[in-house]
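not sure who needs this but someone in the group chat was asking about Aminoglycoside phosphotransferase domain-containing protein from Microlunatus endophyticus so here u go. i didnt clean anything up, its just raw.
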Amino acid sequence: MGWDALRHWGDDVVRGERLTGGAGVNEVWTVRVRGHHAVARLGRRSDADLAWETDLLRRLDAEGMPVPTPIPTRDGRLFVDGLVVMTYLEGGPPETEADWRRVAEALRRLHALTQGWPRRPGWRSSTDLVRAGTGTRVDLDAMPPEGVVRCRAAWARLIGRTTCVVHGDPNQRNIRMTADRVAMIDWDESHVDVPDLDLALPHNAAGLDNDAYDIAAQARAAWEAAVCWDPSGTDQFAVKRLAEVRAI
């Protein structure tokens, strides 16, 4: 159905401009829904996957966390044929060390609120991939074997730690800050994993000791290399991140 599914949100929905992001997995556009500025994301996630994500966002909103919340269709559905419409959040990216410390506080709150959260359907955690070869967008068989060994060694250092929901991609583009709140957008990569994946932040804003920061930074570099890896090996971001994962 594609973008035709927007009609389920009303006859007056207007698509605005395409937004960057999504790593080629989704199309994201601004839309006008019932007189309000919103964001629509069209992708190929399963209904079970989208149900997990939209339930998470509604629960976090209920807990007072500023997140993009799903806007229901006219008949109450939160997604239709891979399309989700969410509230638009104003704000700018973190720029200073103090800004990133606020981001770290928001991430720690997310982690505290979601301990024991059910696994996202079809997803594997970083520690699962120490032995498993695939999970959602990850296909370790497509990566150089020596690189897989390094990634698995980085993830093995996380085994045995408490898990929770991680945002999965807390970079500058996915954060909207104002004077009184920190909001995280683009929860497409959120899943249950070890919180360290979210905490290798600029300026070591999460206040990790040297060893803990090294573990977190290596695990995150390995994760981003695996998630973004192109079978042709031409994705330069993935190649760069894999090069940062050292032998342990």
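also The chain has a mean pLDDT of 95. if thats useful
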